[in-house]
Design a protein that fits this description.
The chain has 8 helices and 4 strands. The two termini are 16 Å apart. The protein is globular, with a radius of gyration of 15 Å. The protein has helices spanning 10-14, 18-28, 42-48, 58-65, 80-88, 101-105, 120-130, 144-149, and strands spanning 3-8, 31-38, 70-76, 114-116. The chain binds 2'-deoxyadenosine-5'-diphosphate and magnesium ion.
Length: 150
């Protein structure tokens, strides 16, 4: 099954939107297999966002993501990377469609509430930064029968 990493960024906690966002993930049917609060330090932020190290927004991004606790979540299931990206909406909330998390709840690119891995390969790398393998729990839900039946 495909795993992806979701981060509820410091603005999600500051705005008390953690429950609202997790509800949307659950309502879509995504299966949470890992969940914890983390306060990222600078080295961790540099590693997580290493692909953006040469961008002008990188220092501000690192400052923001380390400014307070976040919630790290792993979801596991068919097409989970793309499903989460679609739920999140465009990176720039001013372009994100209504119905998406960013399109409904955010307005600034630097405060866009949520991170989701952009490929299964990146997900593997990112998950390893946040979770020890024993922290990822395996369990079956009744709804998983629908996948094999459809
Ligand atoms: P995403 O979070 O949708 O995967 P990304 O990987 O391109 O987007 O960028 C990572 C984060 O960096 C993004 O969520 C917000 C910030 N960011 C991206 N582009 C930016 C820009 N032009 N100005 C300010 N912040 C930006
Ligand atoms: Mg990205």
């Amino acid at each position: 099954m495909e795993r992806t990493l979701i981060l509820l960024k410091p603005d999600a906690l500051q705005r008390a939107l953690v429950g609202v966002i997790i509800s949307r993930l659950e309502a879509r049917g995504l299966k949470i297999t890992g969940l914890k609060m983390v306060h990222m330090d600078k080295p961790m932020a540099h590693q997580h966002y290493s692909v953006h190290a040469d961008k002008g927004f990188f220092p501000g991004l690192v400052e923001f993501i380390t400014s307070g606790p976040i919630v790290a979540i792993v979801v596991d299931g068919k097409d989970s990377v793309q499903i989460v990206r679609t739920l999140m909406g465009e990176t720039d909330p001013s372009k994100a469609l209504p119905g998406t998390i960013r399109g409904d709840l955010a307005k600034d690119i630097g405060r866009n509430l949520i991170h989701g891995s952009d490929s299964p390969e990146q997900a593997v790398r990112e998950i390893a930064l946040f979770f020890d393998p024993v922290e990822l729990l395996s369990y079956t839900r009744d709804t998983e029968r629908w996948i094999t039946e459809s």
